[in-house]
Amino acid sequence: MIKVEKALNYILSSTSPLGIEKINILNALGRVLSEDVCACRDIPPKDNSAMDGYGINSKDTMGASQKNPLLFDIIEDIPAGYMPAKIVGFAEAAKIMTGAPIPQGVDAVIPVENTEPDGDRVKILKEAKTGENVRYAGEDVREGEPVLPAGKIIRPAEIGMLASLGRSFVQVYQKPLVAILATGDELIDIDGVISPEKIISSNSYSTAAQVIECGGIPLQIGIAKDTTEDLTAKFKYAMRADIIVSSAGVSVGDYDFVKDVMKDMGIKIEFWQVAERPGKPLTFGTMEGKLIFGLPGNPVSSMITFEQYVRPSILKMTGHKNLFRKAIRATIKENIRKKEGLRYFIRAVVSYEDGQYTAVTTGEQGSGILKSMVRANGIIVLPEEITAVKTGEKVTVQLIDGSFEMTSQPGYL
Ligand code: AMP
Ligand code: MG
User: Fold this and answer.
1) Taking the domains of the chain in order of start, what are their residue ranges?
2) pLDDT tens for each residue of 123-163
3) Could you give phi then psi for residue 336, rounded to 5 degrees?
4) CATH class of 4-17+175-317
5) Which of 203, 254, 300, when mutated, tests ligand 1's pocket best, judged by the most ligand atoms within 8 Å of its CB?
6) 24-42+140-173, what's its fold?
7) How far is the CA of 402 from the centre of ligand 2 (A)?
8) Secondary structure (DSSP) of 146-175
């Protein structure tokens, strides 16, 4: 039996970013950039107007006011998307729309609101300062400027930036294919014929959802019988993936053959059993650069061990640098007892009240009580050496969902 940190260390030191691929930017949402993106041109490409109004030379507007309107000849109309044809001279104006290129001779734009039409002339009612309402070429991004560094997670803003740079394709880290294998004679698939001695393989689905959530591609291998033959066949099939995640059959039961099958296939078992609850029978092996996880079978154990070990390794494979959920310190609102020597991962409901986090457990913590995961938005992590925590003490809690990212009120405070 090894300690949690050591197990994680084994796993992460066996994990490296997978490879890179070039994909369309709209498919790149949430992916990690694997190239440095520099601007290939100025954005905007030319000085342009920030307002609908009149392009003039600011010097010519000296003294203009509501009481002292100055008359300018309108020599041209410049809609957005068209180049100016004329040079603007003394006491001349070019009618210009937002986004249209600034003509020669113009250093400011008077907004329509500060003008009055007067036939083919315009009255300017306010002085302008040089540069007013002009957006300069390259003011967003300069040609050659590094814009997005490798390692950046691509969000809608990055997609917009890539688009404005004319990049329809971008290089990102690949997603790993994650084979999911349930094992056990008692299991049936979700639509299988139910009978009292059978249970539905919920792990096949919770694991697949966890894989998708952290950016992997699930590959359902189905359910293997508790025989070395069927396990071997299904494990061999699963080896086409980058990561293999099996569940159950790793304890000390008479029909727990998963470890033996792994060994016989040439998989190097890096460790078996971790000093934790739930998840003690966790098994991890490697072969040909692939990671093979034998998660425990109980629905909570499989989800918690996925969360603690498989998720960070998928994130690392996909190029992420931040591999772990945010953890906070919360005041526990009940007494908890534990066994010494094991790290506990306790399902909890975390709240934020009066400027501090509080946590309560989700109740019954049996590793078959999937409801404890359904209710939880956090996992309390209790260290090996302690045997109890008391109401009012501080505990570390990992925040496992977006509970604290969304609220019912708009954020105008
Ligand atoms: P095992 O490790 O094979 O002894 O399995 C431990 C417990 O987890 C047993 O009660 C199994 O029925 C249950 N279990 C195993 N695999 C699954 C699965 N895919 N979905 C839901 N429960 C499972
Ligand atoms: Mg079993």
Assistant:
1) 4-17+175-317, 24-42+140-173, 48-135, 327-399
2) 999 999 999 999 999 999 999 999 999 999 999 999 999 99
3) -130, 135
4) alpha beta
5) 203
6) Molybdopterin biosynthesis moea protein, domain 2 (3.90.105)
7) 33
8) EEE-TTPBP-HHHHHHHHHTT-SEEEEEPP
